[in-house]
Every structure is written in structure tokens, then in C-alpha cells.
Design a protein that fits this description.
This protein is mostly helical. It has four helices and no strands. The protein has one domain: Up-down Bundle (Four Helix Bundle (Hemerythrin (Met), subunit A)).
């Protein structure tokens, strides 16, 4: 379900490495879910995905600030919204709710793919242009 594709490349090597890592962590979570793993496996997988997502978003946002990307605020708002949604899932899972489902995984997959293919492509083109100047 979570498979890196070459068309996701933003042509910024350090960000592509991070995006691949996000896909791998999401795939680990998906595998744990579909294999019926217990909370003791699901929770650490979700926690790892959330923590790495925060690290990745911070790296992207730092690049945007460094190069003066004009849409940085709107991009950060997208990051903040997803982070809040995943933190809410984590909170509900820790409270004993069975919130991790295939529909949640489909949402994460869709968000990752569309965010990388859309918003991330926009900032990467801008940054690559500024780096080349």
C-alpha cells in the first residue's frame, strides 16, 4: 500500500531520503495493522511515524525559510493539520479505542501521495530554482 515511486521525487536528495523513510514507516504500520498485531506493536509503529513526520516537516520548513518560499505559511499549516490528526489517532489508540483501520491507512496514503505530488513539488521547484541562481 505504501510504495515509493520515482515520480514522488522532489529532486532535493535530503528530502527524497526523508520521504522514502516516511513511506517505509507507514508501510510498517500498515503491515502491523493488516497482520492483526496488538497494541504493543501498533502503538510504537504509529509513534515512530509521528516522530519522524515531525522531524521531516521541520526539515522542509527550515528549507522553505532559508530560501524564502512565499507559500511557506500555507505549507506549514498543511503539516500542522496532519500532525494534529495523527496525534489524535495516537491519543485515541492509547485510550483503548480501535482507531487504526484500513480507512485510516488509506487516508494517510492519500495524504502522503497528494502532498508530495502537489505541495512538495511546488516548494521544491522554487528551492531548486533559488539554489541554481
Amino acid at each position: 500500500m505504501f510504495e515509493w515511486k520515482p515520480e514522488y521525487s522532489v529532486q532535493i536528495p535530503e528530502i527524497d531520503v526523508q520521504h522514502r523513510r516516511l513511506f517505509a514507516l507507514a508501510a510498517d504500520l500498515y503491515t502491523a495493522l493488516t497482520q492483526g498485531k496488538a497494541y504493543t506493536v501498533l502503538e510504537p509503529c504509529l509513534a515512530s511515524l509521528l516522530e519522524y513526520t515531525k522531524t521531516h516537516f521541520a526539515a522542509e520548513e527550515a528549507l522553505m525559510r532559508k530560501y524564502g518560499y512565499p507559500q511557506a505559511r500555507a505549507h506549514k499549516e498543511q503539516h500542522d493539520k496532519l500532525t494534529a490528526q495523527v496525534m489524535n489517532l495516537q491519543k485515541r489508540l492509547r485510550a483503548g479505542e480501535n482507531t487504526l483501520s484500513l480507512s485510516v491507512m488509506a487516508f494517510l496514503k492519500d495524504w502522503l501521495e497528494h502532498h508530495i505530488a502537489g505541495s512538495d513539488q511546488s516548494y521544491s521547484a522554487y528551492i531548486r530554482g533559488r539554489r541554481a541562481a
